[in-house]
Amino acid sequence: MLSLGTTRKASKQWDKEYDSLVLPLLEDDVPCYILYRLDSTNNQGYEWVFLAWSPDHSAVRHKMLYAATRATLKKEFGGGHIKDEIFATTKDDLNLSGYKKYLTSQAAPLPLTAAEEELRQIKLNEVQTDISVDTKQQTLQGVAFPVHKDAVAALERFRDKKINYVQLEVDAQQELIRLCSTEPTDLKDLPMRIPKEFARYHFFLYKHSHEGDYLESTVFIYSMPGYKCSIRDRMLYSSCKNPLVDMVENKLQIEIEKKLEIDNGDELTSDFMYEEVHPKQHAHKQAFAKPKGPAGKRGGRRITRPPVEGEEED
User: Fold this and answer.
1) For 277, which DSSP code?
2) Are 52 and 71 in contact (CB under 8 A)?
3) Buried-state track 206-219, b at ≥16 Cβ within 10 A, e below 16
4) What is the 8-class DSSP label of residue 131?
5) pLDDT, mean of residues 39-59
6) Are 160 and 127 in contact (CB under 8 A)?
């Protein structure tokens, strides 16, 4: 059975005498439970710290006994009084410094996986802001780089339909968005323009027919080849994307019909591009029609009324 070992009377603030009261009770080879009262209170009274001491050198039988009685002690003492619970095998974990480290770890957010951390960083940097050709604007968590003059000139030629394709890249060293390519590109050649190892921005003039009309639609493509790019590159391209699109639409007056994000150029088939630019409209659902009754003689009536005088009954 569990029995009381010792008690001490509080005389100072809880953290001023924590080590002097707790550490002398810890024996190197004997487990024990310690309930230490804090100065804070809740609706049930003072709050307590429940310390479960189980040193590595104690006998296995003792460890098992203490492990089996831990829940019972907490229940009998009253779980509502216990603010924190610490299980420790070394004194460094139970001294005041160890307790404060425990509190810090409890307050910290749960660790994220690599993919979750990357997604969090990308979302932090997806902040829209205005940007001009020759100035650099600061976003909330990143930098929206200015567009190099050669890239601006290429986009103006694209606007005037002198060229049908522009590819841009982010120069992290110089903090610029630079021109990468203006090679003439047909739709069948477009997948080959998408790098498999690097992120890029693409402006493509999609020439096609729709419902009998010839159309030339500007499509913006943000290609990011999955996890082949570093987190830094993913953050930079994500941060610069919206300001670039805003500058192209508002400053250069280029109307973008469709914005796409892809990780592989193989996605850019003729059918895919057409359906993205001209998505199918959902057909209206047919109104519910009451089903016809069975053919032939119907069964006897389930609801009847008494026959009126002079009227024959069915």
Assistant:
1) H
2) no
3) beeeeeeeeeebbb
4) -
5) 90
6) no
**Cα end-to-end span (Å), the chain:** 89
Residue 187, amino acid: L
DSSP readout, 21-81? HHGGG-BTTB-EEEEEEEEEEETTEEEEEEEEE--TTS-HHHHHHHHHHHHHHHHHH-GGG
**Gap between the Cα atoms of 118 and 104, Å rounded:** 24
How far is it, in rounded angstroms, from Cα 115 to Cα 195? 22
Q: Answer yes or no: are the C-beta atoms of 224 and 199 closer than 8 Å.
A: yes
* pLDDT higher than threshold 60 for residue 46: yes
| Average pLDDT estimate for 116-138 | 55
Tokens encoding 93 = 């974990």
pLDDT of 70 higher than 70: yes
Furthest-apart CA atoms within the chain: distance in Å: 110
CA dihedral 136, 137, 142, 145 (to 10 degrees): -30
Contact criterion met (CB below 8 Å) for 129 and 122: no
- Cα–Cα distance, 207 to 205 (Å, whole number): 6
Handedness of CA 226, 230, 232, 237 (dihedral sign): negative
Q: What number of residues does the chain have?
A: 314
Please say if the pLDDT value at position 241 is more than 70.
yes
Orientation angle between helical segments 114-125 and 231-250, nearest 10 degrees: 30
Q: Which amino acid is at 126?
A: E
125 sits in which H/E element: helix 114-125
Cα angle: 238, vertex 240, 246; to 5 degrees: 115
